[in-house]
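Q: My labmate handed me this sequence with no annotations at all. I'd like to see what the chain might look like in three dimensions before we decide whether it's worth expressing. Could you predict it?
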Amino acid sequence: MPETAEPATGRPALAVTVGDPVGIGPEITVRTLAEIGTTASARGVVVADPAVLRRAADVCGLDVRIRELHSWDLPEERDGVIDCFDLGELGEAELAWGTVDKRAGAAAVRAIEVATGAAMERRVSGVVTGPINKEAIWAAGSEHLGHTEMLGALTGVTRQNTMFVVRGKKIFFATRHVSLRTALDQCGTDHQVGAIEEALTALRVFGHDEPRLAVAAINPHGGENGAFGTEEIDHLAPAVERVRARGSDVAGPVPADSVFHQLLQDRYDGVLSQYHDQGHIAAKTFDFDGTISVTVGLPILRTSVDHGTAFDIAGTGAADPATMRSAFLHGCEFSHFADRIRAEYGS
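A: Here is what I predict for the chain of 347 residues:
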């Protein structure tokens, strides 16, 4: 097994998956790598069928060459060239843009498997993922709810979480894809303690040696001493105190209508939001294109766009690559923490 994920050029490499090959993923991927070229601190190697990238480049009007690779022994980089690890899944088949197709779903799943394997073998320093279509991967036979669950299975991890990064600030989630009613039911003290500790660990892994974390409240005004709800009194405050007693810098529960503003004012390094939309709305309203997702808890680095396949505009060349560009550049930045990630989350 290689001891390093750095190719002969000295720059770390990132495996980039386009997601669904008939969504906007191929377009935003080729635009990103054509724009960044050899100037970023890491190089990107796309895991896909080369024909998929060539079609996307044509749609986008890009004058680039797609270079097929069949090994992770990477050649010298060249300007105007996008390297593609040949997936060998679709060949030259041209699938209809913007449609649910099990062949596209199978290609998306296979790309994730290949990219994850390369990261686990330290052939690359991390993985950057484009948007998949859940219907397509299910049609192809995948039993996973999405990327996160698939990556957990591929890496042998049973618990992983999402960390949003927006302009250097981090947002975590005590609950994820559940109803608001279920999220309230899950907010017990022990669950909160676990979520707080996981967020603090992630902050340390990603460069905050003495992390400052705020726990967002659930109810208006933080419950107003029980007048608007007692979750803060019964569960959130006791959890915060328990973790603070261990020496961690944790504040809260802080009313949700102010905690994200305080995050931007650099009072904290991260915020633990209580449910999906609480954190998503704050991040995406502030900077939709700059908000990217990092899966924490995996023994590999994984950054991702946080939007869908946009089938309605796929194949038109109109897709904005800003979020993929941000995901790739954050992958470049966080690749320096690859050893920390393996040490903390590896078996």
